[in-house]
Structure prediction request, 258 residues.
Amino acid sequence: MLFENLHIFEISSILRYEDEKAKYPMKNPGRLNCGFILNEKGTEYYHFKDKEITVPPGTLLFIPKGEVYTIDMDDEIYLSLCINFECFEKELPRPFKVAFDKPSHIRSLFSEAELLWKKKKIGFRDDCLSILHKVIGGIKRENFKGLHPANFAKIKPAADYLEEHFADSDFKISRLYELSELSPKYFGTLFKSQFGLTPKEYATELRIEKAKELLISERQSISEISEQLGFSDLYHFSKIFKEKTSYSPLKYRELHKR
Prediction:
C-alpha cells in the first residue's frame, strides 16, 4: 500500500509559492526535502529524468528528496502550497500526482497547516504533522477508489462509521455489516475493492496512524494511548505497532523527540 510505512521525522517548512511565467523554466538540481505540492492556480509541467507530469489546478504532486527536475508553465500566474518534510525511508515512490474528486477537503488541510505554520504557537509542529498524516490518508483512499458509484454507495455509511468510531473500545466489525445491510462476504469484497484492505486491516491502519500522532505529541503515556485507541492491552498495542512501523511505541516516540 502506498506510504504504508512512512515514518515522518519532522515538517521542514510550509510555503506558499506565487510565480510568474517570466520566471520559467525553473530547474531544481536536487530537491532538499520530500514535498507535497498542491496546485491552486495555473498549470505546471514537471520534467523528470524518466517522465513528465502535468499538474493542473486542484492536483497534488509528491516529489521525493533528491529528485532533479525542470518546471515549465503556460499560464501567466502560478499559485501553490507546499508541505516539505523529512522521513526515515531510504526508498520512496518516484514523483506522482493525485487528482482528487473533491479537492476542497485537501485544500482546507493545506490552508490550515499554512496558518498554523505562520502563527507558530506552542505545539504548531505537532499540529502540522498531524495534518500531513491526514493528507497522506486522503492520498491512500483516493489511490484505491475503484468501485462503481452504486457499489460505493452501498458501503459508504459503514465506511464513514468506521472512520469516526475506529478507536471506540466497543467497536466491532460486525456493526459495519449491519449498517450496509450486506452479507459479511459481499461487504468485505466491496470494501477491499475500494480501500485495498479488509475492514479489520483498515481499522488497524487508522489506529496506528492516530497512535503516531499521539506518540509524537507526548501528552499521554503509551498505556493511555493504547487504551484510547481501543486495544485490548498494552502488549497487543505494542505488538501491532511494531509490526506496522518496525518500531516499538517507545522507540518511535524517542525518534521524534525534538
About this structure: The two ends are 29 Å apart (CA to CA). The mean pLDDT is 86. The longest strand covers residues 8-20. The longest helix spans residues 124-143.
